[in-house]
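wait is this the right file?? whatever heres the structure
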C-alpha cells in the first residue's frame, strides 16, 4: 500500500515525534506500511529494527482488501458475527477473534524488554490486547480499535499482565 503525498508527510511528522523519544528497538508487523514507518524511525535514531508477523492485521480471508459496504451488500448482517461470535466466526474464511487475540498475546509476550520498545502494528492486534488488558470479553474488541495513526501507550498495568492471563471469551 503506497502513501499519498499527504500520507507521506504525516508519516514523516509521526516518525519525527516517535524518534524524539529515543526507542531502543522498533518492532513492526512486516507489512509494507508498518515497515516503512518503522524504517523512518530507525533512520532518525539508529535503533534496532525487528519484524514480527504476529503483529499483522487480522486475516479477513476472501474479504481482505474489500470495502465494508461491498461485503455488507453481498452478505447482509453476516459481518456482525465478527462481534457477536468472536470465537467461531471466520470473516471471509480468515481468522477468528480468538485466534487474533491468541496471536496478539504471543506477539506481546515476545516484545523485548530493552528500554523503550515501539511496536508499529494494526488496529486488530491493538484492539485485541486493549480489551484483554481491560479484562473485557472478546465481543468488546470492537470498542478498543484505535483511530488510524493513533499512538497507544502501554501502561505499567499492561506490562504486568505479560504471560499468564488468558483471554475471556
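ok assuming it is, sequence goes like this
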Amino acid at each position: 500500500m503506497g502513501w499519498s503525498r499527504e500520507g507521506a508527510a504525516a508519516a514523516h511528522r509521526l516518525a519525527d515525534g516517535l524518534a524524539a523519544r529515543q526507542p531502543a528497538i522498533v518492532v513492526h508487523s512486516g507489512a509494507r506500511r508498518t515497515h516503512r514507518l518503522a524504517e523512518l524511525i530507525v533512520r532518525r535514531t539508529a535503533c534496532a529494527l525487528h519484524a514480527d508477523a504476529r503483529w499483522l492485521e487480522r486475516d479477513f480471508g476472501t474479504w481482505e482488501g474489500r470495502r465494508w459496504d461491498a461485503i455488507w451488500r453481498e452478505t447482509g448482517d453476516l459481518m456482525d458475527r465478527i462481534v457477536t461470535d468472536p470465537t467461531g466466526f471466520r470473516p471471509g474464511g480468515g481468522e477468528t477473534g480468538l485466534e487474533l487475540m491468541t496471536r496478539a498475546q504471543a506477539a506481546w509476550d515476545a516484545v523485548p524488554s530493552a528500554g523503550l520498545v515501539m511496536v508499529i502494528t494494526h488496529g486488530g492486534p491493538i484492539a485485541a490486547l486493549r480489551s484483554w488488558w481491560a479484562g473485557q470479553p472478546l465481543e468488546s474488541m470492537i470498542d478498543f480499535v484505535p483511530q488510524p495513526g493513533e499512538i497507544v501507550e502501554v501502561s505499567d498495568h499492561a506490562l504486568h499482565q505479560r504471560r499468564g492471563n488468558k483471554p475471556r471469551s
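The helical segments are 5-19, 32-45, 68-75, 81-84, 97-110, 123-133, 156-160. so i think its the right one actually
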